[in-house]
Amino acid sequence: MQLRILVAAAIYLGSYLPLAVILLAQDVDAGAVRRGICPMASMVALECASPLRNPVWSLSAVAICAIGMAVTFLALRLVRKPHRVRVTESKHIPADLINYVIPYVVSFISLEYDQPLKLIGFAVFLIWIFWITYRSGQIVLNPVLAAFGWKLFEVKYIYDAGRGTFVGRMLSRVDVEPDREYHHGALQDVMVVREDGKSDTA
Predict the structure, then answer these.
(1) Closest listed residue to residue 138, CA positions, set 186, 177, 86, 69
(2) Beta carbons within 8 Å of 96's beta carbon, 6+ residues apart
(3) Are strands 180-187 and 151-159 parallel, antiparallel or unpaired?
(4) Pairing between strand 190-193 and 166-172?
């Protein structure tokens, strides 16, 4: 299944939820915290200062990334898995953290919400990485999924009614083992394995 670009963008942004939380933590006004955090109702009524220097930006970023993460899990859940293959070889692939970690490193190089020019440059960088990832068919390879039990496998497999051996990647919450059959669907170039072993009807 080829992802629509808006869904792909949501999945991509969801992978950076931890980064949004880091930037939120960096946006905390230490002086305001020392004075005591006032109730949310008072903040809304502008009767006291927010403990965040840029609450609109920092909270919006967390909310957008959280929605993106929810879209990721929803997309994985809604993938139809009507195909059955027999895996002949499988190898667990550790998450590729190089492109994923770079934005985290940048976030610690004095990147703050009250520096608009740096934020614009950072946004351009993220958009470029998104486009490369989307065009390469790897948008669903979200390293954050590893924290929720998802694993990526490189597999060789065959179809029951076909000839020849194929090579692909499987994303699964169960260990993919050789000489077993699995029902799967696909998000871009990545096969998503169903845990209960049952196929979806077309």
Answers:
(1) 186
(2) 141, 143
(3) unpaired
(4) parallel
Q: What is residue 138's DSSP assignment?
A: -
Could you read off the pLDDT of 53-62 as tens digits, one per residue?
888 888 999 9
pLDDT band of residue 27 (cuts 50, 70, 90) is: confident
Which stretch of DSSP H or E encloses residue 103? Answer: helix 98-107
Q: Which amino acid is at 129?
A: I
Locate the domains of the chain by residue range.
Answer: 1-78+97-138, 80-95+141-202
Q: How far does Cα 98 stand from its chain's mean position?
A: 15
Q: Could you tell me which of 143, 139, 181, 191 has the C-alpha nearest to residue 11?
A: 139
pLDDT of residue 173 exceeding 80, the answer is: yes
Are 57 and 38 contacting, i.e. CB atoms less than 8 angstroms apart? no
Does the predicted model carry a pTM greater than 0.85? no
Give the burial string for 153-170 (b: 16+ CB within 10 Å, else e): bebbbeeeeeeeeeebbb
Sign of dihedral through CA atoms 152, 157, 159, 162?
A: positive
